[in-house]
Structure formats: C-alpha cells, structure tokens
Amino acid sequence: AQQASRVSVSIDTAHPGPVIDPAVQGQFAENLGRGLYDGIWVGHHSNIPNRNGFRTDVLEALKQIHVPVVRWPGGCFADTYDWRDGIGPLSERPVGINTNWGGVNDDNSFGTNEFMNYSEALGADAYVSGNMGSLPPYTMRKWAEYITDGGDGAMARLRRANGRDKPWTNLKYWGFGNESWGCGGHMTAEYSTDLHNRYATFVNPAPGAPDFVKVAAGPHDDLYDWTEKLMQKSKDRLGAISLHYYVFPYGWDHKGPALGFDEDAWAITLEKARHIEELIAKHSAIMDKYDPEKKVGLYVDEWGTWYDPEPSSNPGFLYQQNSLRDAEVAALTLNIFHRHSDRVKLAAIAQMVNVLQAMILTKGDKMVRTPTYWVFDMYKVFQGATPYPVAIQTPDYRYGDHDVPMVDVSAAKAKDGKLYLALVNSDPHKAAHVVTGMTGSASGQILTGPAMDTHNSFDAPDTIHPVAFSGTKDGGKLAFDLPAQSVAVVEVRQR
Ligand code: AHR
Predict the structure, then answer these.
(1) Cβ of 38 below 6 Å from ligand 1
(2) Which domain holds residue 479?
(3) ipTM, interface predicted TM-score of the complex
(4) 302 is catalytic
(5) Could you count the other beta carbons within 10 Å of the beta carbon of residue 412?
(6) What is the C-alpha to C-alpha distance for residues 10 and 86, in angstroms, rounded to an integer?
(7) Using CA atoms, how far apart are residues 416 and 399, in angstroms rounded to an integer?
(8) What atom in ligand 1 is closest to the CA of residue 182?
(9) Which of 354, 376, 451, 495 is deepest in the core (most CB within 10 A)?
(10) pLDDT tens-digit profile of 444-469?
(11) What's this protein's family per the entry (predicted)?
(12) Residue 115's closest CA among 70, 77, 75?
C-alpha cells in the first residue's frame, strides 16, 4: 500500500453560510424507460407487493433517504405531455406513444393523481414540469387548477370525480418547459424568455392555495447567454432558473460503460463532475448582476452521470448500473451545492429509479440500492443544515491529463445542532490522513470498496453499503484516516 497523503482542513465556524435547502437532495422522475412503470408504479393488480399500485420496497427505501422533492413528468417528455390523458378511470385513459424514450406505448396509468399521491406518500414536495413546448397556456393553467383548487371550480369537481377531494398542498414548484434550447422546442433564448413570460402570466395556483415557485427552462452547461436573457427579461416573472449538467465521461457519442472502466474513465468522470462548480459560479455571477439580493434560485434540476446503456437493455430507456464512481460524483456534487447554498436552492439528480444515475434499480420483484443511494442516505443530515466555509490543503489526484483535488470536505451544523463533516477521497490508490484544527471525537459511516466499479447487483445486492467509521487523533487534534476511493459522513463532538 502507498503511504497516505497528508491533508489539512480548517473549518470556519465563525462565518456560517446560507442554509442548505433540503431540496438540493431532490429527485427527478421522468416518464422514461422503467423509471415510473416497473420502478415505482406496478399497478393495483401486480404480484409485486404494492400500496395503491406503488411498489412497497421502493417506496420504503425512498422514504429512508427523506426525498425532499420529486420533479415529474420530464425532462423532454414534459413538452409532449398532455395531463388530461393521465386522469380518470384507467380503462378510459388513452394509450400514448413515448416518442422521446424508446417509442413505446404508454397507457397513462401513472398520471397526475398518481404522481401527487406518490410525492405525498413520500413526504416530498412536488415539482411539476409543465408543457410549454406543445400545448397552450390555457391547458397548463387548468392543470394547476386541477391540483390546487379547493373551491368549486370545474377542475376541482373533475378532481373530486377522480377520487381526490382536497387539493394537494405539496405542490411547491412549477416548471415552464424543459430544455427549450433543445428537445423542448429548439428555441432561441429570446423566444423562450418571451414564452416564459406569457405562460407565467397565466399559470398560477388557484386563489387561496399555497404559492408555487415558477421555474424557467434555463441553460445547460456553459450556455451563459441564456441565463443573461432570462435575468434581463423575466426576472420579475420567475422564482428560479433551471440548469442542467450531465457528466458524459467521453462525450455524447462515446460516453463509456458504467462498469468495467479503467482509471482514465474514473479520473475524467470525477474531473467533469467537479466542473459543475465553475458553471454554478459563472451562472450565479450573471444572476448577481440583476439580482444582488439573491431572490432568484438556480435549480440544478437535472444532474448526474450518463453512460452507455446497459448491454441488452433498450437504449431509449437509459438504464445504467451504478458504482463507487457514481457515489464519488454524488458526494462531490452535493458538497459543491453546499458551497453554493446562496443560489442553489434545489437540485434533482437524474433520475430516481432505473434511469441514469439512479438511487434504486429494479428487476421484477427485486430491488437494489445503488452506491448513489447510500450517499444520499448518509448526506440526509445536511438537509436544512448551516454550512461553514472549509479551507483545505490537499495534494491533487492526477491521472494522465486529469487533475482534481484529492480530498474534498464539506462541514455544516445540522438542524439538530450537531456538526457534521462529509469527506471524499477521490484517489483510487492512496489513503489520506486528514488533520483538522478541532479537538474532540467523531464517528459516522463510510462508503468504499475494493474496485473503482464496486457495485450492487440483483444477485449480490449488499456488496457495497456504508459501514462504521471513526476519527482518530494527531497531535491532540481530530484527524481521519480516509481510505482510497471513499466517501464518509461523520458527526463531530468537539471539546
Ligand atoms: O434525463 C434524461 C434527459 O436528459 C431529459 O429528458 C432531458 O431534459 C435531458 O436532456
């Protein structure tokens, strides 16, 4: 074994940052592949144990990680979706074609009531992505009424006829289109901005219902001009701008496999994951010019790894395995969100179940929790926590042309008043000896594995999961011996 690298960390508890919105641990659940159908919805008559058609194993596993918000129904699917197809008796719902994802038929059995009931069952807020690409604002307005009207309007009556008396009260976010620069309509920034203003004028919660945050279809990656246009022309008609950023290790045309990859793929993936920090900083700087009080949120409502589809799966279903590398990406990204808690008020990893960087994979009645799931489980203490600035002296982890800081640390005081640290070692070979300036002790959990692609499979669902981890001492100071390729979250008890 190589000698451990020395890392020093200093936590500035005198300068707390803005609270980490719990919603940065949000989930994205598109009508895509087996994300909804099979993944969370099996229907009332399935042999798979379910509660009102929702598979019980997945529901319970998701409850454990305290999902704060779920975004639905897309994604690209959102701008093809007519909500009226997904309400009423199942036998009367029309069969649609999911033209974005695999060209498969969609019986519309998972619609608005199912989504709202599911998010409610999870204890999560709902984030509905409205169709701005191919339906008029009137239709979108009626959808919002269907969900929120507690009065006696036609949409409230329709909802009651469909079995739901009271309006749902957990509708907290409303998206206006998705990726308008691409699958959402291939618009210019100017046109999309005008369209946002038009739709946002007419789509509101019913009178008396809780307000929702209006989210504009925003940029991807470094499309800074899009942010500039939205802030210039729509600032007063939106509560947030979305940002999408995916990590494709070798680009769109050759993404690379989810498992069985080499060290170059490990290093480039982590380097690209870290790149989101620069993107957030630059989009935020543009927003600061127009909104110095930081009222408008930057919602990273699609992020995560995107690899080649799993061999023998439908390529339109975006089904991929998930390994220790994805756990590193998740932890590094969540740490970045903590550092930008002034602007990043919501994020949604793509996607919750069976699609891209999923929490959970299912096959028939089997389910596995992925390494990414375990990161979200360990990180739930950071929901609503107050972050502290961290100064870190760390060597870099280098491979070929790729270069990232070896260790990353996030620190925050949780809602329960306890101090937590999240520590990530990105070097797949070397341990890190991390020395803090604090005295006291620490204990928590660590996620690591023998191989870069250590993962859980349906045959071996428990290969990788968090195990107990404690701090040590160095010259009277609290320290950590962080193994290679690991993610840890610990509670610190200062003295
Ligand atoms: O998450 C998969 C797709 O990626 C979404 O539908 C789209 O918004 C993005 O391009």
Answers:
(1) no
(2) 5-13+388-494
(3) 0.99
(4) yes
(5) 25
(6) 53
(7) 40
(8) 10
(9) 354
(10) 999 999 999 999 999 999 999 999 99
(11) Belongs to the glycosyl hydrolase 51 family.
(12) 70
Q: 450: exposed, middle or buried (C-beta count within 10 Å: 0-12, 13-18, 19+)? A: exposed
**Residue 161: both structure tokens together:** 């006829």
For residue 272, give the amino acid letter: K
Distance CA 68, CA 130 (A): 20
| Omega of the bond leading into 75 within 30 degrees of 0 (cis) | yes
Work out how many domains the chain is built from and give that number.
Answer: 2
Question: Tokens 């451990």 belong to which residue?
Answer: 4
Q: How many CA atoms lie within 13 A of 211 on its CB side?
A: 6
Supply the residue whose CA is at minimum distance from atom 6 of ligand 1.
Answer: 75
Strand-pair partners of 173: 127, 213
| Interval between CA 318 and ligand 1 midpoint (Å) | 10
Distance between CA 420 and CA 144 in Å, rounded? 39
Which one of 383, 402, 433 terminates a domain? 383
350 CA distance to ligand 1 centroid (A)?
8
**E strand spans, 40-151:** 50-51, 54-55, 69-72, 96-98, 104-106, 125-130
Q: Which two tokens stand for residue 390?
A: 């961290």
Number of neighbouring beta carbons within 10 Å of residue 144 = 22
pLDDT over threshold 60, residue 1: no
Q: What is the pTM of this model?
A: 0.97
